[in-house]
Structures are given as structure tokens and as C-alpha cells.
Amino acid sequence: MDQLALLMGGFAAALTPYNLLFVLIGAVLGTAVGVLPGLGSSMAVALLLPITFALDPTAAFIMFAGVYFGGLFGDSTAAILLNTPGQSSAIASTFEGHRMARHGRAAVALATAAIGAFIGGLISTTVVVFFSPFLVTMATSFGPAEYFALAVFAFLAISSVVSESMTRGLAALMLGVALALVGIDGPSGTERFSFGIPELFDGFDIVVVTVGLLALGEVLHVASRIHRDPESLKIDPGGVARISRADFRKALPAWLRGAAFGTPFGMIPAGGAEVPTFLAYGTEKRLADRQDDPEFGRTGSIKGLAAPEAAANATAGTALGTLLALGLPTSATAAILLAAFQQYGMQPGPLLFQRSGDLVWTLLASLFIGLIALLALNIFLAPIWARLLYIPQHYLYAGITILAMLGVYAISSSYFDLYVLIALGAFGYLMRRFGMPMAPLLIGVILGPLAETELRRALAVSEGDPSILVSSPITIIVYIVLAGIVILSAVQHVRHRRADRRAAAVAG
């Protein structure tokens, strides 16, 4: 096993006090920046990029390993505690993670996220080391039709599974797709739905959308009910975050399922972590419905948090492997890391393993070390982060509002984005008020541009022949599985509605 020998050589180079120090520094700084609403893991890497220019390449990239995974955990920390994901990959973690925090299990939720990050990252990094040629071959088999099928799968699967009402789920999805259509049309270069406002020519920034709908919408919702629910926020006692054996046994299958979703997606160009995290969450929701899990959607299910966390970090691990092996950035963070490699005069790709093999294997070894350091660090820090919820509600949510405003303004220094943030916050409040699901809208905003672009590419290649959309085994399998999920979800919705009617009749 040549890979194993090379990896051991990488561990020998990485396991020095000097390099271990930079792994730890990267993990702490990445987490700290990722926690701030509106910034996120990619911003953590971008902000800390200039710091590394004074370091030698090995120490710099070892520090980036810590920043990379530390930023992802910071995204999840903000999502769980403040209902404000630092990046779109953490959106799925808000649904059950924030419910757990609000019902006295904040430290357990953060520990679940830390362990999920460790398991997902460990599995994906191991796959990168030993099986990257196979995954790269699989990734190159995706064309425009396959990407479109994947987007449609995510659209309908999420809308039908995570929503109590399929009608409301599809309505929220359409609203999300409508928001995604605002801006300049790429192929034709014409503006659409921007009403002549120059600031809308680039469309709605995903950070503004997620912070507005989730963070500011939550602030307005809590403010409207603060006198009715004065004790809605609770907190775990201090100490090291511990997961009971029962919780660990419940979460372990979800962690593994999430990692299985996330690992292949990191190899797919433009795939991102949004699809696998939402699919992992949707799978847990479907299983919870089948098992009548009383926690899911109410007090917060550990499975509903564990799966998307593992999926997000698994995607991040294989995304870095794709960058190293192909020179192809499949996420915003990977694109920033590509710039870092080029800054040091290196071009990621197949030749990188030949020309800078020592650096590459040291970096891969440091990913394992960074995951261990991050797990140990955040298991102890979880109760400290959870103490944010000790802050009185009016101070806490005022602080969230200020941080959200600062985070959004820092993106483009535009007052217009703040106006959009406020409007979307009000819209998010109305969605909560009338029971509209948030996940389908967000998946529509995130994947709407991808679906449109790949559909138009596929039809351009086939000269308008729609049969190209079902012309490959991958697309046929995706649509068959999607049809099964939608039918099963419709049957479950009908059963639940009948059960609710019977219960109402008995109560009456």
C-alpha cells in the first residue's frame, strides 16, 4: 500500500511541536470566525489567508487544515445556538439543532455536531487517501442532464419530505426559485425581475437570504411572542459536553448515513454541501415519520442534527481531495485554497503529487490531526459556547440583529443589502407565522441557478430535444428513486391527515 507508506511519512512531518501548534491555532481561529453570523468558513479562510504568507508552505497549509474544518464547526455553532448558519452548508443543521438548544440540550447539540464533523471528515479524508481515483472517475461522468436531475431530486425530495404539507412545501420551493431568478440571465446577458435596480443585477446574495430568513426572521418571531413564551430558552449545565450512550447509539447510524451522502458530493464540480446535507436531513425526517419519533420537529432530534453535520464535513473532505488531485475547486472555500496554492507557486492537480508530494501527504496527515484536535477542543468548548443562551432574550436577540447586520454589510459594504435583509426578515417572520416551511425555499434559492443553467446547457447540446434529460442510466435511476420518494411521502401525508382527523373526532 504505497498510499499508507506515504501517509505515514506525512504524519512524521506533521507531528512536530511547531506544526501541531499551527493546527491548533487554525482550529481555534477558524471556529471563532465561523461562529460570527454572516461570515462562515469560507470567509474564515479568506480573512486568515494573508496571515499565512509569512509562514513556510508546510506550516501554512497545516494551519489551513485547522481553519478549514474549524470554520465548518463554527458555522454549525452559530446555526445551533443562534439559528444563523455561517454558510449554506449549515442550514440543515438549524432545524433540529436550534430546537435542541431551545429545549435545554445546547451543549449536547454542539457535541453532536463536533462528533459528526469528526466522523464525516475522517471517513471522507480516508476515502481521499485510498479511493480518490475511483471517485474522480465517478465525478467526471456527471454532465448537464445529471446535474439537472440531481437538482430536481433535491427540489422535490426536500419539499415533499420535510414539510407537513406537500402543498406548502411546493409553494415555498416556488418562492425560492423565484428569488433565484432575479438578476442578469447568464446565457443571454439580459436583466430579469430586477425592476431596473442595479444592485439586483447580481441577484440576491445567499448569505443575505439565509441571514434574513433564518436569523432576522427568528428575531422578529421571538419578539412577537416574548411575553407569551418568556421561558422559551433554556440551557445545559456547565462542564464537559457528554452524550449519553443512548443518544450516541441513536446518532451513530445517522452520522454514518450523513457521511455516505456527503462523501461523493465533494467530488462533483459545483455540487456543494447543500444537496447532501438537505438529503441527509430529509432521510432522517422520513425515518422519523416511519418510527413516530416524538422529538423530530418538536423538541429537536439528535438524528436530524447528526446526519447533516456528518454530510457537510464529508463533502468538505472530498472537496479538498478533488482540489489536490484535479486542481478543481468544488466549493467557495476550496477556491480560496486554490488561490493559496498559487500564491506559493504551486498548481494543484495530478502533477502536484509528483512535484510536491511531501507537502501534499503532510497536508493530508494534518487533516486527520486537525479533526482530532477540533473534536477534543470543541467537546470542552461546547458548554462555553452554549452559555451564550444564558444571556437574557432581549440582549441576545439584539446582539444577533447587530451581528447579522454587520456580517451582511461586510460582504459588499452596501446599504441596499441591509434593506433586503430587513425585507427578508419580515418575510421570514410571516412564513413562521403562517406555518410555511423554510427548507424548500432555501433549497430553491441555492439550487435554482444550478438547475436552470444545467437544463439550458443540456437542451443546447441536444438542440432542444428533451429526451436528453433521461438519456443516461444515472438520470433514469435518480428519477425512479425520486418518484418512489414522492409517492411514499404522499401516502404518509394522507395517513397522518387521517390519523389527525380521527384524533380530533375522538377528542370532540
TrEMBL record:
Keywords, A to Z? Membrane, Transmembrane, Transmembrane helix
* TM region(s), chain numbering: 6-29, 36-55, 61-85, 106-132, 144-162, 169-186, 206-224, 359-385, 397-422, 471-491
| DNA-binding as UniProt keyword | no
Tell me the superkingdom of the source: Bacteria
Please name one Pfam family that this protein belongs to: TctA
Q: Where is the DUF112 domain?
A: 20-442
Xref: InterPro entries: DUF112_TM (IPR002823)
Name recorded for this polypeptide:
Tripartite tricarboxylate transporter TctA
Species name for this entry? Answer: Brachybacterium alimentarium
